[in-house]
Amino acid sequence: MRAGTGVVPVEPGVAVxxxxxxxAMRIGYAYNWYDIxxxxxxxxxxxxxxxxxxxxxxxxxxxxxxxxxxPAGLLSRRFGPRAxxxxxxxxxxxxxxxxxxxxxxxxxLALRTAAGIGAALFFSPAIGLVxxxxxxxxxGIPVGVFSSAFSVxxxxxxxxxxxxxxxxxxxxxxxxxxxxxxxxxxVSLLLVPRTVGRPLPRSDAPRPRIPAALxxxxxxxxxxxxxGLEGATFATxxxxxxxxxxxxxxxxxxxxVVGMMFVFPSILGGPVGGRVAERHRNHRTQFLVxxxxxxxxxxxxxxxxxxxxxAIGVVFSVAYGVDYAVMYVIPQYWREVxxxxxxxxxxxxxxVQLAGGxxxxxxxxxxxxxxxxxVAWESLAVLILVPLGALALLPAxxxxxxxxxxxxxxxxx
Length: 413
Hints:
Number of strands: 0
CATH superfamily: MFS general substrate transporter like domains
Largest sheet: none
Shape: globular
CATH topology: Growth Hormone, Chain: A
Order of helices and strands: HHHHHHHHHHHHHHHHH
Helix content: over 70%
C-alpha cells in the first residue's frame, strides 16, 4: 500500500464495497454534469437566451471544476481524500438542485459554477481513494471502472431529463439530479471506511515550496494535450440535444437517446484502457490512436443520419473512454510524484483540461450562433487534434511489471 495516502490495509470485501460506493457517487456526479443539456431549449425559452449563452452555461460548470482541481489536491493532502470527496459531493448535490430556484440566467450561471466547484472537490481525491484500496498491480481495472462509471451517469443525465422535462419541467428535473447524487453520497459515508483516505500525520520534515506534482512535466503534458478532447466530450454531450431538435428534427427524447450514445459506451473503454495502460508503457501511442479516432467521429457529424449518428457516438465514446482511463492510471506509476500527491497530479491535469475545455465549449456555442452546427462540428474536430503536440513532453514510464516500485520507493514520504 502507498504510505502517503493515509490508508491502512483493508479486507478485500471492504475494498470492493467501498469501491461500489465510490462508483455510485461517480454515477450521480456525472448525471449532474450532463442533466443541464436536455434542459437547454427550455432554459432558453424561460430566460430568452440562445446558443451563445448555452455555451457560457456549459463553460461555467467547467470553470468551477477547473479552478478548484489543484486546491482540491492540496486540501486532500491536508484533510485527507475521504473528507474532501464527501465535501464535494455535498456541494455538487445542493448546488445542482438549487439551480431549480434560479430567478435569472445570471443566477443559474453562478449556481452551475458552484456545482462545478463541488465536482472538482470530489473527483481527484476520489481517484486517490480508489487507487489506495488496492495494491500496486491491481489498480488498473478498479480505476478504469471508476473512470468509465462516468459514462453511466452521463448517459442517464442525458436521457433521464429528456423524458422528465416534458412532464415535470426543467426545474424539477434538476432537483432529481441533486437527489440522484445526494442519496448514494449518504449511503457511501457508511461504505467507505474512515481508515481510508485519512489526512497524513504532520511531519517536521521540510517540504518543497512547490509540490512535485505541480513541477512534473508529465502532468502538464497530459493536461494540455487533452484540452480539446475535454471540450469535445462536454460539447457533444450538451449540444447534441438542441442540434438534434433544431437541425435534425428529432424529438427531445430521441435526441437524448442519441446524446446518450456519445457517453455511455465509453464504459467499455474504461476497463480496457486501464488494463492496457498498466500492462504496456507506450502511452503516447495509446493516446494518439484513441484521440484521432474521437476527432474523426466528430468530423463526420454534419453528414450523419439517425443510424450513423448512433454509430458515431459509440465509436467516439469508446475511444475517449480509453483515453481517460489511461490518463488516470499512469500517475500511479510516475516515480517523480510522491505517493500523497497523486490526487494533486490528477487535479492539476484535470484543471488544465477543464479550463481549456470551458473555452472550447464556449467557442463552440459562439461558432454555432455565428455560422452553423456543421462548421462548429468540423472546428471541434480540429480543436481535439491541435493540442496533442504536448504529448512530446510526456516522459516515458520505464518498461517494468506493474506493481510495487521496490525498496527505494517504500522509503519515500
